Amino acid sequence: xxxxxxxxxxxxxxxxxxxxxxxxxxxxxxxxxxxxxxxxxxxxxxxxxxxxxxxxxxxxxxxxxxxxxxxxxxxxxxxxxxxxxxxxxxxxxxxxxxxxxxxxxxxxxxxxxxxxxxxxxxxxxxxxxxxxxxxxxxxxxxxxxxxxxxxxxxxxxxxxxxxxxxxxxxxxxxxxxxxxxxxxx
Length: 185
Known about the structure:
The chain has about 180 residues and is mostly helical. The chain has four helices and no strands.
């Protein structure tokens, strides 16, 4: 950063005061004028202090390096922001594409499911019709063979088997005959 016009003017004035202070000291030394030498020294000190203050102010206020660093950081931040926005846009585009693909896949699956259901319903109706025709044919054949006619129940002599835990009827009669002192065969 360059010195401003005000800093240059103050530095020039301080340099003038410095030169005049040296001049006063040089002119006071041969004549043993102590007050002039002290006054010249004071002027020199004031001029040097002003010059030092201007240089320190310039050093404190000079932000060229910081501005360059800030500018580089801002450019880097802007580039990072641009990359982030581009990545976010790419992500949103990819998400949109995936959503479209999923919607297309869902509609394809729904159409496939509807077609399979219709096919299964047609197969079911066909099988049901075949089973009904088979059952009707079996019924007709049974009717023709006479299996469905009501006849008198067949008469037969069934011998009942004794149930477990109950004595056979003949054994019960034998036991009764032995009761009360009767003689058994």
